[in-house]
Predict the 3D structure of the following.
Amino acid sequence: MQADNLSEQWQEKKTAPGRMGFDCFSAGFFFLVIWCVGVLVPLYPFLMGFDGFSVFWNFDFRDKDVAVTQALLIYASALLLVLAGVYFGRKTQLNYPSRPSYIVRPRIFLQRSTLFTVAGLLAFVVILILLGGLSGLLKGASDRIRAFAGLNGLFLLQNLLLSVSLAWYIRLTRKPRNCRERFVFWGYFVCALLVCALQGQKSTIFIVVLSLIVVRHYRVKRINLVKGAILGGVMFVSLMAYHVFKQEYLVSGKFFFIKEDQGVFLSIVNFLSTQFTGNLMQLQTMTVLVDAMPDGLPWQNGSSLLMIVLILLPSTLFPDKPLTAAGVFTSAFWPNKWLLEGTTLPPGVFGEFFMNFGILGVLLGGLVLGFVWGRLYGAVIYNPQSDRALGTYALAIASMLHLFRGELSSVLLLLASIWLPFLLLSSRRTAPANHPN
């Protein structure tokens, strides 16, 4: 008993906030990195007109330089409010801690994970039947909005497999090393990843993979800044490889991004550069909103935020259901992209706040988001044994990039489809016998 108490005291000292050193997955620093990548990195290419936005989303600004300056000031203010929110959220977690929860007992875990797995696979089978087999699913992945209309709920059920994967991996971090169970887990996880990859949605893969990396960071071995940067580059290249394989090769049997006059290597470099600037356009979208509102698009006054609740309702039952922020933004400034191609451009979460409530919405939204992230981070560092706190924070950090570049409703729905089942797998209140080490 004395040895166990000494072990627990050593664990608490080891994970105490003052002794952890630099944490590259802390909420404040991770958001700062995303902010720099989404706001500062595209600045020069955007001003010069060779970024992904200028190439694919041509827009006639009234005064581009003034709008860019205002957008930078808005994002700088949002950054300060998010960091302040993270600080206060972390402090409230210290003063008013949340109750820890753990992965359920093995028998209950097996029962619930089996139920979730069967439900996820049944949803996958139903989707295959409705779309005419695997070929129909692969072709539809290149035009998700039109091909998968009305099937959103079935696709979300497949994420039950990812919920099981996250809870199972956390469970393994506090168990004695069991090679057989680890082998079974990785086989399960790879299969779950393949099933969800057929959705054609990069964000789902990114979130679940990064969630496991965050869990490993806090439970197994810390990742320093250099390794984190390398890991980020590898994930970006891997996701882009998945993107072209799914979007081009599986649909047509060849890669369209390879240009004969450029060669393979230069085509790959240009493709990665275009995709990087084309997927991180938060400065550009905010500049459009600042320049054009309210003449080009009236203030939404919270209507797009209603989609957080209404997004699952079929349009046949609710014909007047409002568009998501991406739909409103795209149809206002690029109606042909929306009507003819079914393509949308998300304004980013701070762009959505601005669309609805102006600068005040950006500031309040940043403070609330920072507070939530800070409180979740505090739950991990002040109570490192809590499995639920770790899994929840891992999902929050992993979804931060897509929330920053996307919209509230779709990202929160994706996050909820993984997090809510995870809560059922981490509902145990009594601490397990063996803590993480």
Summary: The chain has two domains: 2-96+264-409, 106-258. The radius of gyration is 22 Å. The chain is about 70% helix and 0% strand. Residues 232 and 430 are 36 Å apart (CA to CA).
